[in-house]
């Protein structure tokens, strides 16, 4: 009924980032609570849903993961259209993947304006000794584009809940 609907919000969240940064691993960690070194990059479900409760509001996230098209530079507006939020992921051991995040931020701001809530995730922080992207650099960049930055590991689960919790709160605020 109306009361139920008024207390329930659904949001589309897209995962973006270079191939192999851990997008699929992050969503599987969040929604299914598992990490598998060897999951295949081929056709995972196009989206997974996650329900959460936030201060008495029920929130349903439809989290869209790519089927690997980013590897062929074939990820266009059809994928991210009508998104309420985006999680831009890079691999802290891969400088180039951090640069790619900047391209996505530019494209999303150009195509969707300030409507879309953005979070940036430096993933694979469990590989600390191989880290090349400095946290201070990433924080300064995120700040400059008005996005929150999180450090995550799909392998240990660190930071993952916080990402989607923050994004949900922000999406509720701007809705
Ligand atoms: P996608 O192409 O962005 O979807 O990346 P995947 O989720 O397929 O991950 C690519 C590879 O990185 C896989 O071998 C994952 O097991 C690995 N991986 C993903 N996240 C992490 C992480 O947080 N830590 C570590 N050590 N490996 C990760
Ligand atoms: Mg993937």
Helix/strand layout:
Elements: H1 2-6, E1 8-16, H2 23-32, E2 47-54, E3 57-64, H3 77-80, E4 85-91, H4 95-112, E5 117-123, H5 135-144, E6 148-151, H6 160-174
Parallel strand pairs: 1-3, 1-4, 4-5, 5-6
Antiparallel strand pairs: 2-3
Bound molecules: guanosine-5'-diphosphate and magnesium ion.
Magnesium ion binds at residues 23-24, 41, 65-66, 68.
Give an account of the 3D structure.
The protein has 175 residues and is α/β, with parallel strands linked by helices. The chain contains six helices and six strands; from the N terminus they run αβαββαβαβαβα. The chain has a six-stranded mixed β-sheet with strand order 2-3-1-4-5-6, sandwiched between helices. α4 links the parallel β4 and β5. It is globular. The protein starts with a helix and ends with a helix. It binds guanosine-5'-diphosphate (GDP) and magnesium ion. Magnesium ion (MG) binds next to α2. Guanosine-5'-diphosphate binds next to α2. It comes from Amphibalanus amphitrite (Striped barnacle). GO terms for molecular function: GTP binding; GTPase activity.
**How many beta-strand runs?**
6
Strand line-up of the largest beta sheet: 2-3-1-4-5-6
Largest sheet: 6 strands, mixed
Amino-to-carboxy terminus distance = 20 Å
- Would you tell me the structural class of the helices and strands? alpha/beta
Q: Name the helicity range.
A: 25-40%
How many helices in DSSP terms? 6
Quote the average pLDDT.
91
Bound molecules: guanosine-5'-diphosphate, magnesium ion
Given as residue ranges, the uncertain stretches (5+ residues, pLDDT < 50) are none
């Amino acid at each position: 009924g109306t009361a139920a609907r008024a207390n329930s919000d659904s949001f589309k969240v897209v995962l973006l980032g270079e191939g192999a940064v851990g997008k699929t691993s992050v969503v599987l960690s969040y929604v299914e609570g598992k990490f598998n070194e060897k999951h295949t990059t081929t056709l995972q479900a196009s989206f997974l849903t996650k329900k959460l409760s936030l201060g008495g509001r029920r929130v349903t996230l439809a989290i869209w993961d790519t089927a690997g098209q980013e590897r062929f530079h074939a990820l266009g507006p059809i994928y991210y259209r009508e998104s309420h939020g985006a999680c831009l992921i890079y691999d802290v051991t891969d400088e180039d993947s951090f640069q790619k995040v900047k391209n996505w931020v530019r494209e999303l701001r150009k195509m969707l304006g300030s409507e879309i809530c953005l979070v940036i995730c430096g993933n694979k922080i469990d590989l600390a000794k191989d880290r090349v992207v400095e946290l201070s650099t990433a924080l300064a960049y995120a700040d400059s584009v008005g996005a929150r930055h999180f450090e995550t590991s799909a392998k240990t689960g660190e930071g993952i809940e916080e990402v989607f919790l923050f994004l949900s709160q922000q999406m509720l605020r701007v809705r």
